[in-house]
Amino acid sequence: MTNGKTKILEDMASTEFRKYGYELVDWIADYLDNIEDYSVLPKTEIGEIKNSLPDQPPKSGESFETILSDFDKKIMPGITHWNHPNFMAYFNSTSSGPGILADLLSAGLNINGMSWHTCPSATELEEVTLNWLAQMLGIPVKFWGIIYDTASMSSLHAVAAAREQAKELFINGEELSQSNYSQLRIYCSEQAHFSIDKCALTLGINKEGIRKIPVDKEFRMIPEKLSEAVKQDRKNGWLPFCVVATVGTTSTTSVDPVKEIATICKKEKIWLHVDAAYAGTAAIIPEMRWIFDGIENVDSIVVNPHKWMFTPIDLSAFYTSKPEMLKQAFSLSAEYLQSSSDEKVTNYMDYGIQLGRRFRSLKLWFIIKYFGVNGIRNRIREHIRLAKKFADWIDNNDDFERMAPVHFGVVCFRAVPKNISDDQSLRENELNKLNEKLLNKINSSDKLFLSHTVLNNKYTIRISISGIRTLEKNVKDAQLIIQNKLSEILT
Amino acid sequence: MTNGKTKILEDMASTEFRKYGYELVDWIADYLDNIEDYSVLPKTEIGEIKNSLPDQPPKSGESFETILSDFDKKIMPGITHWNHPNFMAYFNSTSSGPGILADLLSAGLNINGMSWHTCPSATELEEVTLNWLAQMLGIPVKFWGIIYDTASMSSLHAVAAAREQAKELFINGEELSQSNYSQLRIYCSEQAHFSIDKCALTLGINKEGIRKIPVDKEFRMIPEKLSEAVKQDRKNGWLPFCVVATVGTTSTTSVDPVKEIATICKKEKIWLHVDAAYAGTAAIIPEMRWIFDGIENVDSIVVNPHKWMFTPIDLSAFYTSKPEMLKQAFSLSAEYLQSSSDEKVTNYMDYGIQLGRRFRSLKLWFIIKYFGVNGIRNRIREHIRLAKKFADWIDNNDDFERMAPVHFGVVCFRAVPKNISDDQSLRENELNKLNEKLLNKINSSDKLFLSHTVLNNKYTIRISISGIRTLEKNVKDAQLIIQNKLSEILT
Question: pTM score, two decimals?
Answer without folding.
Answer: 0.96
